[in-house]
Amino acid sequence: MPVGLFRVCLLVITAIVNHPLFFPKENGTAPESTEEIIQKMKEREESLRLEQLRLEQEIADQEATQKALEKAAVVVEESKEEKVRWDMWTALSMVIFLLIELWRQDFQEGNWQDIGGEEDDMAVLGKAFKGVALPNKAVLASFYEKRILGTTGDMARMREMVEGFADDLLEALRSVCNRDADMEVEDCMGVGSMYENWRVRKPFVCDLIVPFAPPEPYCFRCQTWCSGDSFPPDEQGYGTIKVCRADEDVTGCICDKTKLGEDMLCLLHSQVSSTRPSSEMEDLLCFKNTQYLDADQVMKWFQIAVTKAWNRISHKYEFDLSFSLLDSPGALKIKFKSGKSIAFNLTPVVQYENSDVYFISHFPRSSLAADIPSSTHWFLTFAVYERRFIQLVSKTLPANACHISCLQILSFLHGKQCSLTGPSGLTNYHLKTVLLHLLQARPSQDWAPEKLEARLQDMLKFLEKCLHEKKLYHFFIGNGKVPAELGFPIIFQRAEPLNLFRPFVLRRDIYRRMVDTFHEMLRNMSALINEYTVHIPLAHTNGIRKE
Fold it and tell me: Are 193 and 330 in contact (CB under 8 A)?
């Protein structure tokens, strides 16, 4: 038993001593393990070095990317700051430009009297006027007496004859019209050069306007470009005329401005009253399927009515009446048996509210309304106020003032030049507008008869300046200095000024021809005047120049 226990213990001790975990075989494996460890350490060192290089590369890439992003952010920030600075400079430049433009317009509108000053006239007139000498006072006086006064003496008799016949014709027109269905025609009024006493070119033509109104219970509701609604720039100076029932409140109900559903009705207007038959509106001379007055239909109705009226009274007169021009529906001509004839224009118009401003359907012999947007757009004429302004100013001028003489001479020269070189865009209405501006700007004593030469030069200077700037503003529209005695509507005084030369800005061919015609007229002025002037002794002209 003890021997067996001893053997077991010896076996256990031997097993423990020979266990590899306690006593490894150092002599056989030590060198091999050391080399392996060294090799592994080198490999680990190499892998760590490669990992370090990779990490350094990544860090470098990240730093480069960060720098690029920072640089891009700086560029964006600089561009924003540059843009802000540029926007500020642009806005500042625009403000400065607008201030200069407003100052220039105020200077032009408030200092018309400086236009005729004596400072540097040739600089104002430009190259076209250099070397052009106006005829002296004696030559101008002789020309005016021989050519102007000698041909305008019978205008008063012609006006009286035409007005008397027109009144008789309109009375007959009222008798042939249906008072319950046709338009109501009022008395005619004379306007234009024949009634302002400055027409010089033959044939003499009287311009008469005839206001008319719709039959009861209808009325006209007029709307202009300056009444608040937006009108395109090419429709400035125009308006529309809506035919409504007198008891219809077009501004108080929105049913006419909003499209109601099929199952909705307006409580103020029944379906019968709101949707009028198309034939009814066409009988009221409206454009098809609208309530707006059609200028073409008005002229057709007026021509038919005038023809019926003449057939009723033709037996009382020993002459014939006919329409003279196809493109001017209101142009009439009286033909006597002797072969002589008298032409006049009878044009229907619509009164604007309670003023003497009128919507005119057609402008006879004029290019003012040559490009009407549509037949429902009517041009506004201020001819009655223009005539009244000239009459009002004439009362404050010296006796035998030269304002009408200046306009007559310039109109004659322009007409002569157009007969030589052909018509241009410049019209007598433009010439009259120049005179109206100067009449308002210059003091009364400057229009004495002996200052005819100076005032004629002022008109030429002013006209050339307007041609150069392509700006000639309507005298009444936007003019806050219109005399209160005229009773001119304030809505047009507060409107933006209307540039009569605006159509020529887009049509360069017409503008070029107009400028060339004006310059040619300047060069031919002396020759045109001397052609109609009697011989004046040299001593007499020298004596006048010394005065």
Answer: no
Q: Enter the tokens of residue 168.
A: 């008789």
Query: What sign does the dihedral 124-422-500-152 (CA atoms) show?
Result: positive
- Give the model confidence (pLDDT) of 139-172 as tens digits: 888 888 877 876 666 788 899 999 999 999 999 9
Instruction: For the chain, give every domain's residue range.
Output: 125-248+281-534
Element holding 456 (H helix, E strand) = helix 452-469
Task: Classify 379 as helix, strand or coil.
Answer: strand
Q: How far apart are CA 184 and CA 211, in angstroms?
A: 9
User: Tens of pLDDT along 295-332?
Assistant: 999 999 999 999 999 999 999 999 999 988 766 778 99
> Residue 218's beta-bridge partner residues?
245
Q: Are 527 and 435 in contact (CB under 8 A)?
A: no
Contact between residue 362 and residue 330 where contact means Cβ atoms under 8 Å apart: yes
List Cα–Cα distances, 45 to 36, 38, 40, 42, in angstroms: 14, 10, 8, 5
Distance CA 455, CA 475 (A): 18
Contact 447, 403 (CB under 8 A): yes
Q: How far apart, in whole angstroms, are the C-alpha atoms of residue 349 and residue 212?
A: 6
- In one letter, which amino acid is 147? R
Q: What are phi and psi of 288, to 5 degrees?
A: -55, 130
**Tokens linked to 445:** 């004593």
Residue where the block lists tokens 């975990």: 21
- The span from the CA of 223 to the CA of 227, in Å, is 6
**pTM for the whole thing?**
0.71
Q: How do strand 205-213 and strand 341-351 relate by DSSP bridges?
A: parallel
The third-level CATH classification (topology) of the domain covering 125-248+281-534 is: Beta Polymerase; domain 2 (3.30.460)
Residues 372, 294 contacting (CB under 8 angstroms) = no
| CB neighbour class for 407 (10 Å; exposed up to 12, middle 13-18, buried from 19) | buried
Q: At what angle do helices 383-394 and 428-441 cross, to 10 degrees?
A: 40
Q: Which two tokens stand for residue 266?
A: 């307006």
224 beta partners: 239
Distance CA 83, CA 427 (A): 49
